[in-house]
Model the fold of this input.
Amino acid sequence: IRSSLRDYDRLQALAVILVYIQIGCALVGSLGALYNGVLMINLAVAFFALVAMDSSSQSLGPTYAVLLFFAILLDIAWFILFSHTLRNIIPDEKYEPLFAFSLRLALSMEIIGFSVTFFSSILWIQIRIRHLLS
Done:
């Protein structure tokens, strides 16, 4: 693993794979009935990441780093505000089973997406360091 983390091209390829996972999580999670706005924001940030990586622009990389930082803060705030509510929703006479499932799906995709985003930010820092040193 260490040898692959030292190779800039492999880091870049892994970053692209992580961005595609973020896009998938955001798309699937946005199908939820409520609380899916943050997933749409994560989708926009992931699309911006693809543009930044494909264009190799010197100004888009730092802009993406700032967007990634604020996306992580937004995800943390979303977890603090809504995760307790979403975990406690059970299908009953107030919530239909499909409605409860869609909310749990949104929560699950947010958890997976946040994990990937957090790992992606660490990888992005590694990429920037490798780029600056080369």
Summary: Residues 71 and 101 are 25 Å apart (CA to CA). The chain has one domain: 2-133.
